[in-house]
């Protein structure tokens, strides 16, 4: 029997297992420059709630400049870093994550992104004084990654056949949308390395927002939980971005997409730097399953709430809590 190659198939396998070392990674990869990326993104969000995107159009020189400045920031003496803290919620934080007793082997800077439109020239949208320690790469990065988030959400809307097409990305590009930016540093730890132990860098949790866009240096540590409950390591890729489905997108899709539990394990051998832009809707934005995604007779799985309600509840919770639980019907 002769099996003919089907050239059309070359266009489709945008979600494909990636060979990494001796194993096939469970992390879907979507090439945003290829046809069918909308369908591939939807499939990845349904299956895993996490997807690596390539050909994302974020200039690598901007990413590298911001990474270099981030490394420099975290290399500053502790007393200097602490002038931009403690994070409550914005500013410099060390070991303590959130207000309810969570800790990890991590130091970080958290920025609130205000409603003003992002521009290359103005830093005023960053509600954090330490923003002035960074050069233009910070705002250039935020502009480019916001565009990426918007493109991804528009593709997801296309894949889900949501009308109007800008319904989802409109939630994060709205003047009132509530963004957060986090720079994390998981330092080298010779003791852990010596003991060959790993430690919690950032405990397991889901992100409360719509989506988060994560990028890290070439250090391992990030893990995601698959639907069957097993944890898998995400091979680092400093040239790509990872899209994380958040709780709000789970609700908007009535549970068709699942917000992915993820965590960072620190093994101390190499420092890890990550940058995550969290895209939340406007505070008054109503979060409820989109009627056009509901099948005939399908009931909403969630009580209706606003992003402000959800955020308030989130800040009362512990990192690993199931925050959506109290909003389920
Ligand atoms: C998890 C996702 C983001 O990092 C974050 C975190 C926030 C914080 O660090 O202040 C929270 C956590 C996150 C959810 C529950 C609360 C709030 C810590 C915490 C225990 C910035 C966010 O938006 O929610």
Describe this structure in words.
It comes from Musa acuminata subsp. malaccensis (Wild banana). The protein has 329 residues and is an alpha+beta fold. The chain has a single domain, classed as Sandwich (Jelly Rolls). The chain is built from 8 helices and 16 strands. Helix 1 packs across helix 4, helix 2 (60-75) crosses helix 4 and helix 4 packs antiparallel against helix 5 (167-173). Residues 1-24 and 117-124 have low confidence and may be disordered. The structure holds gibberellin A4. Gibberellin A4 binds at residues 89, 97-98, 100, 102, 180, 182, 205, 207-208, 278, 314-315, 317-319.
CATH class: Mainly Beta
Bound molecules: gibberellin A4
Let me know the number of strands.
Answer: 16
CATH architecture: Sandwich
Can you say what the CATH homologous superfamily is? B-lactam Antibiotic, Isopenicillin N Synthase, Chain
Please estimate the helix content: 25-40%
Mean of the pLDDT scores? 88
Largest sheet: 8 strands, mixed
- Whole-number radius of gyration? 20 Å
What would you call the shape?
globular
Order of helices and strands: EEEHEHHEEHHEHEEEEEHEEEEH
Lateral arrangement of strands in the main beta sheet: 3-4-12-9-14-7-6-5
CATH topology: Jelly Rolls
User: Spans of 5+ residues with little confidence (pLDDT < 50)?
Assistant: 1-24, 117-124
Tell me the span between the first and last alpha carbons. 55 Å
| Helix run count | 8
Question: What fraction of the residues are assigned to beta strands by DSSP?
Answer: 25-35%
Secondary-structure content class = alpha+beta
Number of structurally distinct domains: 1
